[in-house]
Amino acid sequence: MARLFARNETLVATILLLFIIVTSIVDPSFLSVPTLFDLLRNGLIMAIFAIGVLLVLISGGIDVSFTALAAFAMYATTKTLVETGVEGSMALALAMSGGIGLCLGLVNGFFVGTMRLPTLIVTLGTLSAFRGALLTFVGSQLISNVPDGMRDFSRTMLLRGTNADGYFYSLPAAVLVLLLVVVLTWFILYRTMLGRNIFAIGGSLDSARRIGIPVTKVQYFIYAYVGTISGIAGIVHASLARVANPFDIVGLELSVIAAVVLGGARLQGGTGTITGTLLGVALIVVINNSLITLGIPSTWQNIVIGLLILLGTGVPAWQARRSGRTE
Amino acid sequence: MNDRSREAHDAPSVVALDHISKSFAGVRALDDVSLAIRPGEVVCLAGENGSGKSTLIKALSGAQPAESGTVSFHGQPQAQISPIGAVRAGVQVIYQDFSLFPNLTVAENIAFNDRLARGTRWIDWREMRRTAEAALGRIGVDIPLDAVVEDLPVASKQLVAIARALVDEARLIVMDEPTAALTEREVKHLLGIISRLKERGIAVLFVSHKLAEVFSVCERVVVLRNGRLVAEGPVDEFDPASLTHHMTGREIDAAPVVSADAPRGSDLLQVRHLSREGAFSDVSLDLAAGESLGIVGLLGSGRSELAKALFGMDPASSGTIRIEGEEARIDSISDAMERGIAYVPEDRLTEGLFLTQSIGANIAAGSFRRLAGTFGLVRKSDIRDEADGWVERLSIATPSSDLPVSSLSGGNQQRVMLARWLATTPRILILNGPTVGVDVGSKADIHRTIADLAAEGLGVIVISDDLPEVLACCNRIMVMRDGRIVDERRNDDVTENELSHLLSSDAEDA
């Protein structure tokens, strides 16, 4: 299975490369630093979400509520900061939004961990409840004068310059947030007992309970962690857009889950890698952009992504079944 | 009852259960059971399904603590037992399903309990490999450390589970039905490992209802029936008959339930030169109504493939099948069903039953076409009548046919499967391993049912590697080896030993 799984990642990487090559042949300027940074900027939020989703999928669960949670945390944070007049730094906004996300994640944790309800049902419920609560109790007006801290953050660049063709490029500091999330999540998954417990729960919930893994605690952690990450993704999104739109973000959840599954995570739980997840996100972002470059109508994006999911997850599963039968 | 054994050895018992009781929904699963296990002792816990064996294991592993009575580890009474506490006291349970993590590597699975018990927070992959290597070395087996467990064959998974149990200075290893999924050779290997454990002073509580294993590996036998400890003593005080008697509470006759001279009806099935590449070749057989034919063979002899070919699951590539003298093409399951062939698969859990559905729905599942009335609708009351009829006829032990199949013991589940096929009113019934995972009492009942069915005029084919089984319930026995039929005997013309010899491929050299 290890080799097969590697094949899944290789498959995604190959398709990704193929798209890049074809698009570069049609439009030579595609293969450039400005495009790369554009793609990074476009895929940033999705990638942060995807890392959170990966964690849930590894544990054998599924979370569809993270977008509602992100929108709630992002909008509540921005509104509070604006109304209290605390222009503050980005760090404060990140901490607040992450904190709200954490609390909402604990709600999921309660239903999944303590009440032992199926994760899809729980998160479908909270998706709707969080979104409704946001629009009912917090507000439904667009906030376009985001606090200075957030606006400044969107202007902070790690790198900027102009390439030989005269195209301007810049790399937003928000990339650091993704980097931090990736490194932290990698560390948790592969260097801590907590992370191995997450894998174990995804592999066999019954076995995990039997050998004494504190399953409930681990589940609380998973959903709280995903909540925090989502809250952070939400506020980063709002500051890059320089607008807090309560109707934003929700609706993204299925494409994020698709990216993670495309990257090799199994819906049955127990498997998935960060590399695969990032490749999956990259593929979806590249497809979206290259189809535009290739002059293919954007409605085709969904068809192509759908086919890729069928191909990327279907082919390895089909191969596994066939080899299992003949051996 | 324990006093004698306790006095005999000064060393405190690894585990002592003292007047343990436990109820589930008002039903006494364990009733005042006391049991002590000394270091290095191999104790067999025997009992039929539902006798309380699993409850006893869960009580001593802390998975489901008992309601009353005390559990002591190494002479120390434990106030409350948790799974981790039991592991720290050296009590390791290898469950029937091994409780491994299929998605993790061999090394990580082996080291997992140890890391958990020590309360490790950080992961040291190199240390983990060393731990795993040492544990595998202790039982003298070689399994690639980086292999993912779900890719391993069953026997290797079990070895991984044993290695995992050994990591933490295990003092008592409980093995729940360890041989259920193993071939004969693998069982021998396992029994070898158990004696090695014994030499190291590790006690083993061996849970089984296979009598042969009980006698070959255990020193002491403890028998549970209906939650009570009904017999205990050194293994040489028991023989298969007395053990069976204690387990079932009744006398079970091992004598054949069918006679080789049973009257044969008209020819039902004629198979000539049936072959399927890589599975079996040139198989010819005849089956008459009222006859039950046994086909024995080891794993890989082609016995299951032959059954599947006759049922159209994996059709044969050449040869002819005649049913009641008429040539029949059987290329699919529906072909086979149309010709009145029914097949009860070997692994009823994965191949047949809808575990969470009711007993009634499972029984009726094959007969909807017959039960359907106008507009193809099926009346609920018809299903219930049909189901209740079969529950009574096959004496399936359940208060109601509305309960899910998962609430039944293995033997009763097998009967539900049988009922489903009988409800389709077949003429030829193929049973593959009809009593795999079924306890002694139910086994005898199933054998009687098979004999009754044949007496009613059905043609029955029993495919099995359980030799006493085919000797008991088949008039004729065909021996399959390497995809061919190599011998055919009447059941009064062959002994178990002879059959066993005919089965193994080195018989020709002897």
Automatic annotation (TrEMBL), chain A:
<feature type="transmembrane region" description="Helical">
    <location>
        <begin position="277"/>
        <end position="296"/>
    </location>
</feature>
<feature type="transmembrane region" description="Helical">
    <location>
        <begin position="302"/>
        <end position="320"/>
    </location>
</feature>
<keyword id="KW-0812">Transmembrane</keyword>
<keyword id="KW-0997">Cell inner membrane</keyword>
<dbReference type="InterPro" id="IPR001851">
    <property type="entry name" value="ABC_transp_permease"/>
</dbReference>
<feature type="transmembrane region" description="Helical">
    <location>
        <begin position="246"/>
        <end position="265"/>
    </location>
</feature>
<protein>
    <submittedName>
        <fullName>Monosaccharide ABC transporter membrane protein, CUT2 family</fullName>
    </submittedName>
</protein>
<dbReference type="Pfam" id="PF02653">
    <property type="entry name" value="BPD_transp_2"/>
</dbReference>
<feature type="transmembrane region" description="Helical">
    <location>
        <begin position="12"/>
        <end position="31"/>
    </location>
</feature>
<keyword id="KW-0813">Transport</keyword>
<feature type="transmembrane region" description="Helical">
    <location>
        <begin position="220"/>
        <end position="240"/>
    </location>
</feature>
<feature type="transmembrane region" description="Helical">
    <location>
        <begin position="120"/>
        <end position="143"/>
    </location>
</feature>
<keyword id="KW-1003">Cell membrane</keyword>
<feature type="transmembrane region" description="Helical">
    <location>
        <begin position="167"/>
        <end position="189"/>
    </location>
</feature>
<keyword id="KW-1133">Transmembrane helix</keyword>
<keyword id="KW-0472">Membrane</keyword>
<feature type="transmembrane region" description="Helical">
    <location>
        <begin position="43"/>
        <end position="76"/>
    </location>
</feature>
<dbReference type="GO" id="GO:0005886">
    <property type="term" value="C:plasma membrane"/>
</dbReference>
<dbReference type="GO" id="GO:0022857">
    <property type="term" value="F:transmembrane transporter activity"/>
</dbReference>
<feature type="transmembrane region" description="Helical">
    <location>
        <begin position="88"/>
        <end position="113"/>
    </location>
</feature>
Automatic annotation (TrEMBL), chain B:
<keyword id="KW-0813">Transport</keyword>
<keyword id="KW-0472">Membrane</keyword>
<dbReference type="InterPro" id="IPR003593">
    <property type="entry name" value="AAA+_ATPase"/>
</dbReference>
<feature type="domain" description="ABC transporter">
    <location>
        <begin position="15"/>
        <end position="251"/>
    </location>
</feature>
<keyword id="KW-0762">Sugar transport</keyword>
<dbReference type="InterPro" id="IPR017871">
    <property type="entry name" value="ABC_transporter-like_CS"/>
</dbReference>
<dbReference type="InterPro" id="IPR027417">
    <property type="entry name" value="P-loop_NTPase"/>
</dbReference>
<protein>
    <submittedName>
        <fullName>Monosaccharide ABC transporter ATP-binding protein, CUT2 family</fullName>
    </submittedName>
</protein>
<dbReference type="GO" id="GO:0005524">
    <property type="term" value="F:ATP binding"/>
</dbReference>
<feature type="domain" description="ABC transporter">
    <location>
        <begin position="263"/>
        <end position="507"/>
    </location>
</feature>
<keyword id="KW-1003">Cell membrane</keyword>
<keyword id="KW-1278">Translocase</keyword>
<dbReference type="InterPro" id="IPR003439">
    <property type="entry name" value="ABC_transporter-like_ATP-bd"/>
</dbReference>
<keyword id="KW-0547">Nucleotide-binding</keyword>
<dbReference type="GO" id="GO:0016887">
    <property type="term" value="F:ATP hydrolysis activity"/>
</dbReference>
<keyword id="KW-0067">ATP-binding</keyword>
<dbReference type="InterPro" id="IPR050107">
    <property type="entry name" value="ABC_carbohydrate_import_ATPase"/>
</dbReference>
<keyword id="KW-0677">Repeat</keyword>
<dbReference type="Pfam" id="PF00005">
    <property type="entry name" value="ABC_tran"/>
</dbReference>
